[in-house]
Amino acid sequence: PPPAERIALADLKPGHWVALFRQLDMTGVTRSMAGNSLLVEVTGNQLRLMLDETQATLFNDEHRKRIEAAMMAYFEVRIELQMLAGAINGETPVAMRKRLEQEYRESARRKFSHDPMVQELVRQFAAEIQPESVVPLEPFQW
User: Fold this and answer.
1) Tens digits of per-residue pLDDT, 31-80?
2) CA dihedral angle for residue 7, residue 32, residue 90, residue 140, rounded to 10 degrees
3) Separation in Å, CA 133 to CA 24, 105, 141
4) DSSP letters along 20-77, please?
5) Which helix (H) or strand (E) holds 4?
6) Which residues contact 118 (CB under 8 A, 6 or more apart)?
7) In the predicted model, is pLDDT for residue 1 greater than 70?
8) What's CA 25's distance to the chain center, in Å?
């Protein structure tokens, strides 16, 4: 996929969170914490994230500092990050990735099932397609 367009802090809105998340340099549990969050508010250089309450027990101030550092490296200015925990009423980056992966697998299964050669084999041999056994040839790219 082409590189994502850089987002300016002055233009950052909650709807940009997935695109920003994908560009931040984070790994491990810290990336997981950020990926299970939604950006709920931007006020100048102060950002507020809402962490899915089911993930909150793993979160600590070190993760907040690492997310903040990744954002400071990205925006090249000081960022103050506040992390709240609560019910998520939107699609987090992790949820979006899972949804897109599922859609990708379903698309592969549909294409396979509708392939004329596969349909002919099913017809000729009274075969049955096991949908869960059909996997895309190319790995999912996000």
Assistant:
1) 999 999 999 999 999 999 999 999 899 899 999 999 999 999 999 999 99
2) 80
3) 35, 11, 20
4) HHHHS---HHHHHHHHTEEEEEEETTEEEEEEETTTGGG--HHHHHHHHHHHHHHHSS
5) none
6) 112, 129
7) no
8) 14
Q: Are 91 and 99 in contact (CB under 8 A)?
A: yes
Write the pLDDT tens digit of every residue in 92-124. Answer: 999 999 999 999 999 999 999 999 999 999 999
Find all residues with CB under 8 Å of 5, minimum gap 6, and list them: 19
Residue 12 is encoded by which pair of tokens?
């950052």
CA 96 to chain centre: 5
